[in-house]
Amino acid sequence: MSTNEKKTLTVALTGASGAVYGVRIVQELLKSGHTVHFLLTGAAWQVLYYELGMDTSDRERCLDELFGSHERLFYHTDQEFSAPIASGSAQNDGMVIVPCSMGTLAKIAHGTSSNLLERAADVALKERRKLIIVPRETPLNSIHLENMKRLSDTGAQIVPAMPGFYHHPSNYDDLVNFVVGKVLDQLGASHNLFRRWGES
């Protein structure tokens, strides 16, 4: 259910293919007035370079190119365990890991917290907050599937990066926006990124 209530959310990108999904989600959340705590793994920075052609040698400039100057965007590094999202006492309305690599998914499923991303996900689970995992891998083996079920059983929402076609996508952006919109729906964040089933 979408709402106009302003939220504080965490968005994390890993090294799986599909960095555009995470970038677009952050852009949409900021555009709607939400506050975003933003994380990228080292591998995610590499994916920004290879998939989006970003010059990641100057990370602050890269973030500015992607999101502009936003007072509601808080970027955190991998080992910044002093960040608010590392503690359950800090208020947070949910976390999205998009795209989520199978390595990151496995560590979260088994309670490993070797970096801030994994710790923030652990916090979301222990505090019973919304945790949305957007896996981007194919094909999936039994270990991947078992880890997804383990996370689903603990309350995480698994939203695979699988675009629909009933809205008649006509370009690349339509396909990206469909997946991004489905994630925003799970966060309760309003958007108009795709035509819903039954809408004229």
TrEMBL record:
Keyword Transferase: yes
One example GO MF annotation: flavin prenyltransferase activity
Catalytic reactions on record: dimethylallyl phosphate + FMNH2 = prenylated FMNH2 + phosphate
Residue numbers binding dimethylallyl phosphate: 166, 182
Top-level division of the source organism's lineage: Bacteria
Keyword match Transferase: yes
Flavoprotein domain segment(s): 7-187
This enzyme's EC code(s): 2.5.1.129
Binding site for FMN: 15-17, 41, 101-104, 136
SUPFAM superfamilies recorded: Homo-oligomeric flavin-containing Cys decarboxylases, HFCD (SSF52507)
Keyword field: Flavoprotein, FMN, Prenyltransferase, Transferase
NCBIfam families given in the database record: PRK06029.1, ubiX_pad
Similarity field: Belongs to the UbiX/PAD1 family.
Function: Flavin prenyltransferase that catalyzes the synthesis of the prenylated FMN cofactor (prenyl-FMN) for 4-hydroxy-3-polyprenylbenzoic acid decarboxylase UbiD. The prenyltransferase is metal-independent and links a dimethylallyl moiety from dimethylallyl monophosphate (DMAP) to the flavin N5 and C6 atoms of FMN.
The protein's name in its UniProt record: Flavin prenyltransferase UbiX
Organism name: Salisediminibacterium halotolerans
UniProt lineage: Bacteria, Bacillati, Bacillota, Bacilli, Bacillales
Gene that encodes the chain: ubiX
